[in-house]
Amino acid sequence: MTTDFPDKDLYETELYLSRETDTLFESGEWPKPFVFNEDVARVFDNMVSRSVPLYREVIACAAQWTRAYYQPDTRIVDVGCSTGTFLELLGRYLKQPATLVGIDNSQPMLEQARQKLAQIPAIHTVELVCTSADQFSFTGSSIVVVNYTLQFLPVQQRQKVLQAIYDGLVEHGLVFVSEKVKSPHPQFQETITQHYEAFKTHNGYARNEIERKKEALDNVLVPLTEAEQRQILIDCGFQQVDTLIKLHNFVSMVALK
After folding, report:
1. Is 236 assigned to a binding site?
2. Which CDD domains match (predicted)?
């Protein structure tokens, strides 16, 4: 583990985000069920930053933990890398040469990532792979980041992916997982939903947009509880598991092999 961090604080650094505004659910045709197609990829940066509380802080936190636990001559893998925001930030501030691998099963997302990562420092090797998480080999990785990806997989497939990550990580390798979760308590879940929808309203989404997207995500995004997510990590073999960030129905966790 390294503690030799650059002077510039990651939390003061701007993310490289597209300026295309998300208006997909305003009127007319809208993606139902929700899919990561070309239209979504084009506005994804705006969509995720307006829909996920503390998104910027989560990306910065993932970069900090990656810098702390990266082992030379291993790979850093971003599962469901989408438009490459995490890898781009990491590439700017990771001073050790590294192989940065982004995987996503959406080719339009990878095209956005390819443009975003074009100016990454030459000390790094960048690989973008169009594949699903359950088809990828994580062998030789010291860091695997899985931000808001498992929640879109069938529940029974999530442990399979995390087990493959555990098996592929080198000793003392780290997985950083962010997920939308649900409360085990119905009353709390109702309150959480109210606060989350208020958050989206504050970020400029109209009520009809919120309702349409909720309908589009029905049976596409299926959240677990935080305890269930933690237990899957433990069942896969991770012995140290901790929660780093949580606000309402979004949580970021780390687990060490």
Report:
1. no
2. AdoMet_MTases
For residue 214, give the 3-state DSSP assignment. Answer: helix
Q: Is 100 helix (H, G, I), strand (E, B) or coil?
A: strand
pTM for the full predicted model: 0.93
Would you call 186 exposed, middle or buried from its count of C-beta atoms within 10 A (0-12, 13-18, 19+)?
Answer: exposed
Q: Check the annotation: does 28 bind a ligand.
A: no
DSSP structure string for 157-194: HHHHHHHHHHHHEEEEEEEEEEEEEE-SSHHHHHHHHH
Query: Do strands 250-256 and 240-247 pair parallel, antiparallel, or not at all (unpaired)?
Result: antiparallel
Asked whether residue 51 is marked as a ligand-binding residue, the answer is no
Determine whether the annotation assigns residue 81 to a binding site. yes
Determine the length of the chain.
257
User: Which residue ranges in the chain fall short of pLDDT 50?
Assistant: 7
**pLDDT tens sequence across 32-64:** 788 888 999 999 999 999 999 999 999 999 999
